[in-house]
């Protein structure tokens, strides 16, 4: 195949929170680009994950889950990021979770999806789960889409079909990213995401939503990576919860983050974690 015949384009993944957009992104790219948790509103940025193929290159854009009632400033900003990411794409994948009923939130997202005049694929995710209660309701949406595919981001079922469909729809064009690159994220940001994932997993209720993580420094000292990071929260009571009794909680967050960082970087990691209160971080986010 000559260069000119290759295809390329941007494909956005949209859907409500927790449907599995980030897990799908990782499965498509074949490596962990985005963090995944069982909690809603995990993703906060439009993250690019790049798929390289003999047919060309697909740049997938993972987005935050859309929330129906955007009362707080963080949710408002996340919703705005989704709308932004939906502009100027070459195709769209609308990810749904047929184990959950279509409610007002889903209808709002459907409305947004409808406005995109590009090839659209409806992906019914989590098809590894037996007989999901609302599969028929979602399948009824198929008429508004160019293709409907039942997939499982978890097991990889039908992902090949999904990629084949995308290549059908993409225009010819040159690659946007070099071949070895799987994401647009810099290490600093990506390391911060991994730490944030551990906080989402370990802490309860509203604490994960009160925090952001900033990696301030990465020093590569031959066989060891020194990483200095700050967990920023908007209230003193959250700071106390993050640190925990005898600093047990922050230690355990640090340990699980370090383990994963060591696995992905293949280096020894020294992780210096601090917790700080910045009341107004969501406004600056
Ligand atoms: N059984 C099953 N579970 C899945 C599948 N895909 C995702 N999940 C689970 O669904 C939950 C949410 O996955 P995420 O990928 O974080 O969902 P998301 O849509 O990115 O969520 P936000 O970032 O909050 O919008 C996690 O607990 C995943 O393990 C799937 O194909 N099958
Ligand atoms: Mg996500």
Describe this structure in words.
The protein folds into two domains: 3-169, 3-Layer(aba) Sandwich (Rossmann fold), CATH 3.40.50.300; 187-284, GMP Synthetase, Chain A, domain 3 (2-Layer Sandwich), CATH 3.30.300. Helix 6 (187-202) crosses helix 8 (248-265). The mean pLDDT is 95. It has helices at residues 21-29, 73-86, 104-114, 135-139, 159-169, 187-202, 236-243, 248-265, 281-284; strands at residues 7-14, 47-53, 56-62, 91-96, 120-124, 147-150, 211-221, 224-233, 268-277. It has nine helices and nine strands. It has a six-stranded mixed sheet, sandwiched between helices. A three-stranded mixed sheet has the order 7-8-9. The N and C termini lie far apart (44 Å). The protein is α/β, with parallel strands linked by helices and 285 residues long. Bound molecules: guanosine-5'-triphosphate (GTP) and magnesium ion. The site of magnesium ion has 6 residues, from helix 1.
């Amino acid at each position: 195949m000559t260069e000119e015949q290759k295809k390329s384009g941007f494909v956005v993944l949209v859907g409500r929170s927790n449907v599995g957009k980030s897990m799908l992104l990782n499965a498509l790219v074949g490596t962990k680009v985005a963090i995944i948790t069982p909690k809603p509103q995990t993703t906060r940025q439009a993250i690019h994950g790049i798929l390289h193929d003999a047919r060309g290159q697909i740049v997938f854009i993972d987005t935050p889950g859309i929330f129906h009632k955007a009362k707080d400033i963080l949710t408002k900003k996340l919703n705005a990021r989704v709308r932004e990411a939906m502009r100027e794409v070459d195709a769209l994948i609308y990810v749904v979770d047929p184990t959950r009923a279509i409610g007002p939130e889903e209808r709002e997202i459907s409305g947004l999806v409808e406005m995109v005049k590009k090839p659209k694929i409806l992906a019914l995710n989590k098809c590894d789960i037996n007989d999901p209660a609302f599969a028929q309701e979602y399948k009824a949406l198929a008429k508004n889409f160019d293709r409907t595919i039942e997939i499982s981001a978890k097991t990889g079922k039908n992902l090949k079909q999904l990629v084949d469909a995308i290549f059908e729809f993409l225009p010819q064009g040159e690659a946007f990213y070099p071949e070895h690159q799987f994401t647009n994220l810099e290490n600093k940001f990506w390391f911060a995401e991994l730490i944030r994932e551990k906080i989402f997993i370990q802490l309860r209720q509203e604490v994960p939503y009160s925090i952001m993580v900033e990696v301030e420094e990465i020093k590569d000292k031959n066989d060891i990576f020194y990483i200095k990071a700050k967990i920023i929260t908007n209230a003193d009571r959250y700071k106390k919860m993050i640190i925990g009794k005898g600093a047990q909680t922050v230690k355990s967050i640090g340990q699980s983050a370090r383990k994963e960082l060591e696995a992905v970087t293949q280096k020894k990691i020294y992780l210096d974690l601090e917790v700080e209160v910045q009341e107004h971080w969501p406004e600056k986010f």
